């Protein structure tokens, strides 16, 4: 707070207050602190397993997050996950999802550390998210919050609706056998006439150079459209739309066609399969307020399909809130298709997850 | 002489009758001055937007059948009429934030780790919608027309009809009761494009902040589910210098 503001606040405090309700102006805080804790107990049961493993899997996840900001200049933030998993045996795992320091100086922001960055604009797929955690179309919202950021140095210049970002991400701390490489990437993000547009370019050390364009736009009262076009050895394309009805039901559809190159190839796809085509369709509604007693319920159902081999996974998600801190959910996955197909290769006929979430 | 007197008397009578008619006619026809709807609306906005740049905290308590069933906290930063940044502070929503830039709106969800564009219709969801929290500059969003003057409770009020003049307006039409003495909002009715009366509001409590009267509490009544209402309580209202960076659409920081 500068001297003039301090003086103004002191003068105002010294003024006689009229009787009745009168708020004193709180000063701008020098230090701000944010923390959250999420505890999830998740149990998954697989039916008709085609591999000799136990059909039940239990996980307890403890996910604390802490953020500290000093004088709007310095930021320290970390987000961790501890997982106790019980399958055939119990294992404990710790993950650093994010841990970074940020420095803000005028129009510039600098970040050092592990940071979650998402430059892609797709819900289920991305062609342009070169620093993003991997998108899993059957779990587009990362429902257990297990995604990890990339280790990076990033500089951002933000002026109005324009932002230039330059990032260098190291793969030194990436897990063994991870396909990640050191990546240098640049993004120019701007908002013009309602189009939130990004131009992305960069290079993977020892790999390919790449370029991409992304956009989102709202049309009228109920439509949002988004798209990505990327070039990395070959072209990849994503086109999507979201529509909200007056009753609050939201539909999301996406079409994605990546080339069958090592960078874009799905783990289940064969190298000879050629260019892939995927489709995603989601219909959901948060807060079923119109039904008496269902206000605390969220429901969504979605389908991810590989249009090449006509395999698909249908998913149903329900969530029910209890008070301000507890919620329970049910997640049902039904993969279908040939044994060698993209989604039919899943070694079970259904996977049902149920869990309880506590948030502090 | 007699004739002159008669003429003068007749003339006097005509003048007198004419004067009386004029008084009656003008006395009845002269309408009270019509209030300027635009300046009334701008003045009413100052009860919720006291400074060009400010912060406040909003606590929303949802009631079902008069029992509190849900509570949410938001920290709101407002700069001008076009820029609003809302940080969600409730345990369930921690990490979420919402940005409004003119007609465009984004919500950042921690589970997707990116800002998601939201459509005007998505802003309407919930008992107290995101639009109710983030869009409080009615003069920027609506074109006002003065309808009438009437009593709302004990208060003599001007009634304005507001019609959405931009895509980003939360509602298509608003009927707005402003206290005649000082243009302070008293109550409102909110309508959708279909004409459906979706919500009503009462502006319940004001308090002086830095010498300005500011809204402290309002109640939103759900006109579709009549047993449901939300109370919005405003606190920590303070003028504050806010950097433009706070309102960048690609923002993903926890702060």
Description:
The complex is a heterodimer of chains A (about 350) and B (about 260). With about 350 residues, chain A is mostly beta strands. Chain A has one helix at about 5-15, and strands at about 20-25, 30-45, 55-70, 75-85, 90-105, 110-115, 150-160, 160-170, 185-190, 195-205, 210-220, 225-230, 235-245, 250-255, 280-285, 295-305, 310-320, 325-335, 350-360. Helices cover about 5% and strands about 55% of the residues of chain A. In chain A, β3 and β4 (about 75-85) form a beta hairpin. The radius of gyration of chain A is 24 Å and the shape is globular. Residues about 1-20 of chain A have low confidence and may be disordered. In chain B, about 20% of the residues lie in helices and about 45% in strands. Chain B contains four helices and 13 strands. Chain B has helices at about 1-30, 35-45, 130-135, 140, and strands spanning about 55-65, 65-80, 85-90, 95-100, 105-110, 115, 140-150, 155-165, 175-180, 185-190, 195-210, 210-220, 230-240. In chain B, a hairpin with a 2-residue loop joins β11 and β12 (about 210-220). β1 (about 20-25) of chain A pairs parallel with β11 (about 195-210) of chain B, so a sheet runs across the interface.
